[in-house]
Amino acid sequence: MISRLNRVLDTFIGKIERAESLDPIADKLSAALSKPLSPAPMRSILSGTPVGHPAHPAMVLVPVGSWLSATYLDLVGGTDGECAARRLVAMGVVSAVPAALTGANDWMYTSGAERRVGLVHAAGNYFALGLYLGSWTARRRQRVGLGKALAAAGSVTVTLTGWLGGHLTYARGVGVDTTAFEVVPSEWTDVFSEADLQPDEPVLVHADGVPVMLVKSGDELLAIGDRCTHRGGPLHEGTFKDGCITCPWHGGTFRVSDGQVIEGPPSRSEQVFEVRIRYGSVQVRRADEPGVLRGNPVS
Ligand code: FES
User: Fold this and answer.
1) Which of 108, 142, 171 is the last residue of a domain?
2) pTM for the full model?
3) Same domain for 164 and 214?
4) pLDDT for 247-256, tens place per residue?
């Protein structure tokens, strides 16, 4: 039973992921959203940069929680619960706006199969929003039965779109720090020749296979992970200025001395490396304690 359901869902999501017919719609939507969502402060806030995690998963809690609570009251609250249910539906509709904005922002940085799933996820959520708007209107007009039916349909829809959102995160890794499973050496590791370093010119080196961006800034040698935590852009190909590196893919900016994000869309900081010179060779090692999964021998 469980494996059958799993197979059915896999087939369903596979069809969406391969549906190239969705691409022209996604292209148009992306073009329409790129201007309003591109200003730097807006991009950082919608990406969750100030709080260190993508904002969208937290923002969806309010509308989904409000709407499902309204359905619960519809089922067990009787006439006493009707007013509260109507207010919960309204709260869900209002709070869906920031949830949709953060989701649209995250979607703008996806491509291929992820972008198609994200498009269907969003379309389903807009459909649910329409159902709940209809539910609220019907309740205001004393057509409580219709309002409850529309809310029930909305509950089913947000459950399905929530599953699609879960697929994007847990199966496709959208919103996940792209360096989360990198195993970074804790021992000093030779990575480059000191003589070949040019001031303010980032270079790509590898420490036990992990890509590291190394740069000579003034008298200092600095090193952080080269793979952008946002979507994996190669930081050494970015622009190094005023001690910060700007990712060539979406313009996220990191301070190289401590790996902190200065400007979104990344929300996670970069791994920082300690650097030293030994006999003309640049050596690096991890500067902090590894997370459990980073040290997992299987990875
Ligand atoms: S990959 Fe998106 S900002 Fe670097």
Assistant:
1) 171
2) 0.88
3) no
4) 999 999 999 9
